[in-house]
Predict the structure of Probable 6-phosphogluconolactonase.
Amino acid sequence: MAQRKMIVFPTKNEVSEAMAAYTAKLSAKFIKEKGLFTVVLSGGDLIDWLCKLVQPPYIDSIEWSKWHVFWVDERVCAWEDPDSNYKLAMDGFLSKVPIPDKNIYAIDKHSAADGNAEHCAALYEDCLKNLVKEKIIPISKKTGYPEFDLQLLGMGPDGHMASLFPNHPQINEKQKWVTHITDSPKPPPKRITFTLPVINSALYNLMAICDKPQAKSVAEIMKHNNFSLPSAHLSAQVENVWYLDQAAASEL
């Protein structure tokens, strides 16, 4: 498992530029090596920070048709609901790049609108298992879980990542690839999320954290390895890198 690496940038804008460069570099690498690139998105501010990818030089140089896009977690609501991570990503990023619709793997539309979190999680896991059969996603030889190329993650002020929250049992789930939560401390309460072993089976994990509210949790993780915070458990197969702005690093 990769050791945590940290890079602090002066501003959010530099974090955004570095994220775009990192993502574009890995996109080129994996497309050259295997003809496709699997990317896992999260919600929150992360999509805003991907804005540099839809500008030159990246918009024209990335082979978007070879991308396959997933979500590390999703809110169980209609696709058009303002709470939807799918809607956030479509509006802010995916609608601006030519990734084929069939390569965008969203939460099941009908079950999400119905609000059935457990069923949504099972269907998303089925989707991943089918893509393993189709040789889109490999199984990690080291872990036995699906192996994504790159995950772009964020952390909440409480130290949560994906929809793995402090003092909730989902962090301990090891059988399932995708689990659900119906009592998220952050609204909306119903969500689905990759489990920790799946998150940590990714080849590259980039955790991007900006702003002051996260600074205390950043310090707890970086200085004290406080494992009561889910984000402290983040690892990766090749690289586990944390990009912080000055504000997020202010208590280090």
